Automatic annotation (TrEMBL):
It comes from Xanthomonas albilineans (strain GPE PC73 / CFBP 7063). Coiled coil: none annotated. This is Type IV secretion system protein virB4. SUPFAM superfamilies: P-loop containing nucleoside triphosphate hydrolases. Residues 640-777 form the TraG P-loop domain. It comes from the Bacteria. Belongs to the TrbE/VirB4 family. Keywords: ATP-binding, Nucleotide-binding, Plasmid, Virulence. The lineage of its organism: Bacteria, Pseudomonadati, Pseudomonadota, Gammaproteobacteria, Lysobacterales. One of its GO terms (molecular function) is ATP binding. Residues 213-408 form the CagE TrbE VirB component of type IV transporter system central domain.
Amino acid sequence: MGADLAGSRELQDEIPTSRYMPYTRHVTDSIISTREGDLITVLKLGGRSNTGADYATQMRWVQDLNTLLRGLASEASDHLALWSHVVRRRVTEYQQADYTNPFCAEFDRKYRNLFTADSLMLNELYLTVAWRANPEKMLSLLSKFEREPRAVNQDRMTRNVRAVEKVQKALLISLKRYDAELLGVYERTAAGEVVTNELRESWKKQGGEEPTYTYSSSAEFLSYLVNGEWLLQPVTRGHLADTIPQNRVLFPRWGEVGEIRTASRSRYFGMVEIFDYEDRTEPGHLNVFLEAPFEGVLSQSFSVLSTAAAMAFMKRHKGQLEDSNDASETQVAEIAYAMDRLVAGEYVMGQHHATILVYGDTPNEARDGTERAASMFRDVGIVPKVVTLAIEAAFWAQLPANWKYRPRPAAITSLNFLSFSSLHNFLMGKPAGNPWGPAVTLFKTKGDTPLYFNFHYTDTDVDAEGVRTSAHTIITGASGEGKTALVGALMTQAEKFNPTVVAFDKDRGMEILIRAMGGKYFPLVIGEPTCWNPFQLEPTPRNMEFLRAFLIQLCRGAPKPGEPGKYNHDVTQHDEDQISRAMQTVMIEISDKRLRNMTRLLENLPETNRYSEDAQAHPSVKSRLLKWTVGHENGWAFDNPTDDLDLSRFRIYGFDYTDFLDHPEIRTPVMMYLMHRTEGMKDGRRFMRFFDEFWKPVQDEMFSKWAKDGLKTDRKKNAFNVFVTQEPSDALESTIAKTIIQQCATQVFLPNVKATREEYTEGFKLTNAEFDLVQSMPEGSRQFVVKQGANCAKARFLLGPEFVPELAVLSGSPDRSELLQEIIADVGDDPKDWLPVFVRRVTQPEKQK
């Protein structure tokens, strides 16, 4: 049962902590030696999200890791061992951001509190390679008594260092998908800033360097295992075993709760060991720990056995089964089959141990957490045992290369080990280094871990700040699932970037928010003058090209139902020529833009169509455009005295297009004009454009080129679009909408009980497992699934009662917009004046009676 932990546990007989730690010094920047001459190197991993991955995919990941481990073991099975750790701890991470808008600043302040009250957890994964200098126990024992020549020792150390460096290289390459990072020596300034190449370059430009101090991130990880808290570890002349312990670790004489005393408090801990498990293991078998409601450390070790040693073990086990009276023929056959697979090189075997350390602020909390941990593992077919008398050995066995303290190591296959240590984690997103800098906002995953949300999708290990890449996003979910509030929150949090925002809104859902953010909102109503006049645009080539296409569309009339690309009227080349000549006259020859309008255009068009004898079948251009002039059916839309659509006064604009979404004859030219004007805002500034029920306004054929080509160029202009719908089935019936969906870098799915597998797997290209994840979300859960590339995460956006005032703003409605208009009429349109009144009227209606 591990090493002899002789000595009383009473305070007066306390043994120095350094006695239990094997580490001496750094032999390279990333390799640490032990007293026995063994070597360790530590990798920190982001892990791989298995959310939305089916069993076959996860099994393939295990097989890939198994291939890696077999390859490493084939060259040095007697030397190689792995320690894996999952550190689960509470954090209060929330990025500092500056908001100039009072509403956005207040929302951020309250939202921050959701993550700074010890409710956010972090899962940190570490993989340590432990390299035995003397694999043979007898040689290792003799080395303690017989002093080797220094040259021999140095030669072996050099060879072992090279071997470990080779393993490092293989792991960094093969575990790239797991965001592997090699820990080791680094430098900090006196102000605590980590020294990077960029910082050194800036010093060179300034003509001098600041004093720096050397630290070890490898030692800091080892320090956490011993001290129970993250502490800086300077690289000094002394042994690491002496400098790492900074807190007192106390163990009970008979009980099951230990204590770590810091300068200011005590942390208590209990431990559970994995004693046995069922024959079958699965990928992510111990993933329940990733969702544990307590802080703790899951530690495992796997010391590779040579094939000869593994075969000897299995033969003994087979013989024991054959000698026993209760062994079945099936069990014996399974052992024989396992031996065949071992000989065939399908896996390797190793000595394995696994423990879970559970932290608590009190002894009872540690006991309760320990029992909870044991219960969690029983639920997945594990036989756990609460560690009592062996708690001291189990604690020190967490340390890599601390071979002698491992409690009850058992021989298992590499496939079993990689099922227990699958390197899974919840998707974390990217907190910094995004094209626009910091993450847009923060959400919680199922495991209470942080999910940093970004519209842009870039590799986590690449600093992409300033890089222009795709960020188009689609958000879909059934009505009542919090979609409008989520979209509003994203818009609010993105205000930190000072972007230009355009929102095409439905049912005035964003009006209150846009006005609260200091933006301009236009509720468009059929029959009410828009105060738009396209003829008063400057006659630039871009505007002239648009105006020509715009007038051609007006001549076509409404699209024919069920006939994509077909309209009520054809436009011939002669028609287009007439339009071009009339445009030239109005736009070029009339210099005073106040005199340019639709009516003046008609004055320059012939009354009849001289190229067609059938006036009814092919009416003249003038007769078709007549309805769009003042005093006629659609004159309110574009034949206005002035064009008052000034997109330079505000940074945020909203247009409610509900009234004409189902009127294609009006919808199409209105959207053409708005798209043309807002496209002109893309000049390199940060630009976001939202479309509610996006498939409706862009379903006409003239938007197909924009969907195919225009979206691709948005990234070059530092712009992106957010497409929102509660009707994915309708959206997927539109060819243009499908094209848009295919170009979205980010997909967000809220609950939808009407979701069908065909729609989501064929339309949104989700895997079956990802669709199952979407379908599993309960109604009203405020959960959602985010997919970016091959990554998938489930998170939640749940605002409590303290957010009632903010929710009244984030999620608008026609009746609340009417209330807002009443209030603005009384107190003015400055948000600082109307917002408090509006919130009070909405949240305390009884006081208004």
